[in-house]
Amino acid sequence: MVRMPTKSPSRGEQTRNAILQAAHDLFLKQGYHGTSMRQVASQAGIALGGLYNHFNSKEAVFEAVFLAFHPYHQVFPLLTGARGDNLGQLVQDAVERMVQAIRGRPDFMNLMFIEMVEFKSVHAQKLFATLLPQGIQILQHLVEPHVDQVRPIPLPMVLRTFLGMFFGYYLTEMALAPMAPPEFRENAMQHFIDVYLRGILAS
User: Fold this and answer.
1) Per-residue pLDDT tens for 74-130?
2) Of 1, 111, 171, 181, which alpha carbon lies 20 to 30 A from 104's?
3) What is the CATH number for 144?
4) Which residue range forms the structural domain that includes residue 193?
5) What's the total number of domains in the chain?
Protein backbone atom coordinates (compact mmCIF):
# COMPACT_ATOMS: atom_id res chain seq x y z
CA MET A 1 0.00 0.00 0.00
CA VAL A 2 0.99 3.65 -0.44
CA ARG A 3 2.50 5.02 2.77
CA MET A 4 -0.03 7.41 4.25
CA PRO A 5 0.99 10.52 6.20
CA THR A 6 0.24 10.63 9.92
CA LYS A 7 -2.22 13.51 9.60
CA SER A 8 -5.51 13.11 7.80
CA PRO A 9 -4.81 13.36 4.06
CA SER A 10 -6.41 16.14 2.05
CA ARG A 11 -8.82 15.32 -0.73
CA GLY A 12 -6.03 15.84 -3.27
CA GLU A 13 -3.77 13.45 -1.36
CA GLN A 14 -6.56 10.89 -1.15
CA THR A 15 -7.09 11.13 -4.91
CA ARG A 16 -3.36 10.80 -5.58
CA ASN A 17 -3.14 7.75 -3.33
CA ALA A 18 -6.12 6.19 -5.09
CA ILE A 19 -4.42 6.78 -8.45
CA LEU A 20 -1.17 5.20 -7.28
CA GLN A 21 -2.93 2.15 -5.84
CA ALA A 22 -5.01 1.70 -9.01
CA ALA A 23 -1.99 2.11 -11.29
CA HIS A 24 0.10 -0.25 -9.13
CA ASP A 25 -2.54 -2.98 -9.36
CA LEU A 26 -3.05 -2.53 -13.10
CA PHE A 27 0.67 -2.44 -13.94
CA LEU A 28 1.17 -5.72 -12.06
CA LYS A 29 -1.86 -7.37 -13.65
CA GLN A 30 -1.60 -6.07 -17.23
CA GLY A 31 1.95 -4.77 -17.59
CA TYR A 32 2.99 -1.23 -18.37
CA HIS A 33 2.05 -1.20 -22.05
CA GLY A 34 -1.18 -3.08 -21.37
CA THR A 35 -2.41 -0.35 -19.05
CA SER A 36 -3.94 2.91 -20.27
CA MET A 37 -4.41 6.19 -18.46
CA ARG A 38 -8.16 5.77 -18.96
CA GLN A 39 -8.06 2.42 -17.14
CA VAL A 40 -6.08 3.94 -14.26
CA ALA A 41 -8.61 6.77 -13.94
CA SER A 42 -11.54 4.37 -14.06
CA GLN A 43 -10.08 2.07 -11.39
CA ALA A 44 -9.22 5.08 -9.21
CA GLY A 45 -12.82 6.27 -9.50
CA ILE A 46 -12.03 9.61 -11.13
CA ALA A 47 -12.45 11.21 -14.53
CA LEU A 48 -9.60 11.02 -17.02
CA GLY A 49 -9.14 14.78 -16.77
CA GLY A 50 -8.78 14.44 -13.00
CA LEU A 51 -5.94 11.98 -13.53
CA TYR A 52 -4.15 14.45 -15.80
CA ASN A 53 -4.52 17.10 -13.11
CA HIS A 54 -2.13 14.97 -11.03
CA PHE A 55 0.10 13.36 -13.68
CA ASN A 56 0.88 14.56 -17.18
CA SER A 57 1.86 11.14 -18.58
CA LYS A 58 1.71 7.41 -17.93
CA GLU A 59 5.47 7.38 -17.27
CA ALA A 60 4.98 10.01 -14.57
CA VAL A 61 2.35 7.73 -13.00
CA PHE A 62 4.73 4.77 -13.11
CA GLU A 63 7.58 6.76 -11.59
CA ALA A 64 5.32 7.84 -8.73
CA VAL A 65 4.19 4.23 -8.23
CA PHE A 66 7.79 3.00 -8.27
CA LEU A 67 8.82 5.54 -5.63
CA ALA A 68 5.75 5.10 -3.42
CA PHE A 69 5.89 1.31 -3.39
CA HIS A 70 9.66 0.93 -3.20
CA PRO A 71 10.55 -1.22 -0.15
CA TYR A 72 13.28 1.15 1.03
CA HIS A 73 10.48 2.72 3.10
CA GLN A 74 10.43 -0.48 5.15
CA VAL A 75 14.03 -1.65 4.69
CA PHE A 76 15.90 1.43 5.93
CA PRO A 77 14.24 1.53 9.37
CA LEU A 78 14.75 -2.22 9.73
CA LEU A 79 18.43 -1.97 8.83
CA THR A 80 18.95 0.82 11.31
CA GLY A 81 17.92 -1.62 14.04
CA ALA A 82 20.22 -4.47 12.93
CA ARG A 83 22.28 -5.89 15.81
CA GLY A 84 25.07 -8.42 16.39
CA ASP A 85 27.93 -9.12 18.78
CA ASN A 86 30.29 -9.47 15.82
CA LEU A 87 30.28 -8.58 12.15
CA GLY A 88 28.96 -11.98 11.05
CA GLN A 89 25.96 -11.75 13.36
CA LEU A 90 25.35 -8.17 12.25
CA VAL A 91 25.33 -9.09 8.56
CA GLN A 92 23.04 -12.07 9.20
CA ASP A 93 20.59 -9.92 11.16
CA ALA A 94 20.63 -7.25 8.44
CA VAL A 95 20.00 -9.82 5.68
CA GLU A 96 17.19 -11.47 7.65
CA ARG A 97 15.56 -8.07 8.14
CA MET A 98 15.80 -7.29 4.42
CA VAL A 99 14.43 -10.69 3.47
CA GLN A 100 11.55 -10.14 5.88
CA ALA A 101 10.71 -6.82 4.23
CA ILE A 102 11.11 -7.96 0.61
CA ARG A 103 9.45 -11.36 1.07
CA GLY A 104 6.22 -9.59 1.96
CA ARG A 105 6.47 -7.49 -1.20
CA PRO A 106 6.44 -9.80 -4.24
CA ASP A 107 5.04 -6.88 -6.23
CA PHE A 108 8.35 -5.02 -5.95
CA MET A 109 10.29 -7.38 -8.21
CA ASN A 110 7.57 -7.09 -10.86
CA LEU A 111 7.79 -3.29 -10.66
CA MET A 112 11.58 -3.55 -10.82
CA PHE A 113 11.42 -5.69 -13.97
CA ILE A 114 9.12 -3.11 -15.61
CA GLU A 115 11.56 -0.39 -14.55
CA MET A 116 14.58 -2.21 -16.02
CA VAL A 117 12.95 -3.38 -19.26
CA GLU A 118 10.78 -0.38 -20.13
CA PHE A 119 12.82 2.49 -18.68
CA LYS A 120 16.40 1.14 -18.57
CA SER A 121 16.42 1.75 -14.79
CA VAL A 122 16.38 5.54 -15.18
CA HIS A 123 14.03 6.04 -12.21
CA ALA A 124 15.90 3.50 -10.09
CA GLN A 125 19.18 5.31 -10.81
CA LYS A 126 17.71 8.66 -9.76
CA LEU A 127 16.32 7.11 -6.57
CA PHE A 128 19.62 5.38 -5.81
CA ALA A 129 21.53 8.64 -6.18
CA THR A 130 19.18 10.17 -3.62
CA LEU A 131 19.33 7.22 -1.22
CA LEU A 132 23.06 6.46 -1.46
CA PRO A 133 24.15 8.99 1.20
CA GLN A 134 21.49 7.70 3.58
CA GLY A 135 22.49 4.09 2.89
CA ILE A 136 26.16 4.85 3.53
CA GLN A 137 25.25 6.64 6.76
CA ILE A 138 23.29 3.60 7.98
CA LEU A 139 26.15 1.29 6.97
CA GLN A 140 28.70 3.47 8.72
CA HIS A 141 26.61 3.43 11.89
CA LEU A 142 26.33 -0.37 11.78
CA VAL A 143 29.96 -1.11 10.94
CA GLU A 144 31.53 1.41 13.33
CA PRO A 145 31.48 -0.90 16.41
CA HIS A 146 33.15 -3.65 14.31
CA VAL A 147 35.53 -1.49 12.27
CA ASP A 148 38.55 -3.53 13.42
CA GLN A 149 37.04 -6.57 11.64
CA VAL A 150 36.62 -4.86 8.26
CA ARG A 151 39.24 -4.59 5.53
CA PRO A 152 39.95 -1.05 4.25
CA ILE A 153 37.32 -1.09 1.50
CA PRO A 154 35.44 2.11 0.54
CA LEU A 155 32.01 2.15 2.19
CA PRO A 156 30.14 2.64 -1.12
CA MET A 157 31.74 -0.60 -2.37
CA VAL A 158 30.88 -2.39 0.87
CA LEU A 159 27.29 -1.28 0.34
CA ARG A 160 27.30 -2.36 -3.31
CA THR A 161 28.69 -5.82 -2.56
CA PHE A 162 26.22 -6.24 0.30
CA LEU A 163 23.33 -5.40 -2.02
CA GLY A 164 24.78 -7.77 -4.63
CA MET A 165 24.94 -10.58 -2.08
CA PHE A 166 21.40 -9.91 -0.88
CA PHE A 167 19.78 -9.75 -4.33
CA GLY A 168 21.80 -12.76 -5.48
CA TYR A 169 20.34 -14.72 -2.59
CA TYR A 170 16.81 -13.35 -2.97
CA LEU A 171 16.51 -13.79 -6.75
CA THR A 172 17.88 -17.34 -6.77
CA GLU A 173 15.66 -18.19 -3.80
CA MET A 174 12.59 -16.84 -5.57
CA ALA A 175 13.26 -18.12 -9.09
CA LEU A 176 15.23 -21.35 -8.67
CA ALA A 177 15.05 -22.74 -5.15
CA PRO A 178 11.49 -24.15 -5.23
CA MET A 179 12.45 -26.73 -7.88
CA ALA A 180 16.13 -27.16 -6.95
CA PRO A 181 17.71 -30.14 -5.12
CA PRO A 182 18.15 -29.93 -1.33
CA GLU A 183 21.85 -29.04 -1.64
CA PHE A 184 20.82 -25.85 -3.44
CA ARG A 185 18.43 -24.82 -0.67
CA GLU A 186 19.74 -25.99 2.70
CA ASN A 187 21.19 -23.21 4.88
CA ALA A 188 21.32 -21.03 1.76
CA MET A 189 21.29 -17.70 3.57
CA GLN A 190 24.09 -18.78 5.90
CA HIS A 191 26.21 -19.94 2.94
CA PHE A 192 25.66 -16.66 1.09
CA ILE A 193 26.67 -14.68 4.18
CA ASP A 194 29.69 -16.91 4.82
CA VAL A 195 30.91 -16.54 1.22
CA TYR A 196 30.29 -12.78 1.37
CA LEU A 197 32.35 -12.42 4.55
CA ARG A 198 35.10 -14.99 3.91
CA GLY A 199 35.08 -15.89 0.21
CA ILE A 200 35.35 -19.44 -1.13
CA LEU A 201 39.10 -19.91 -0.83
CA ALA A 202 40.20 -22.27 1.93
CA SER A 203 43.14 -20.07 2.97
Assistant:
1) 999 999 999 999 989 999 999 999 988 888 888 999 999 999 999 999 999 999 999
2) 181
3) 1.10.357
4) 70-198
5) 2
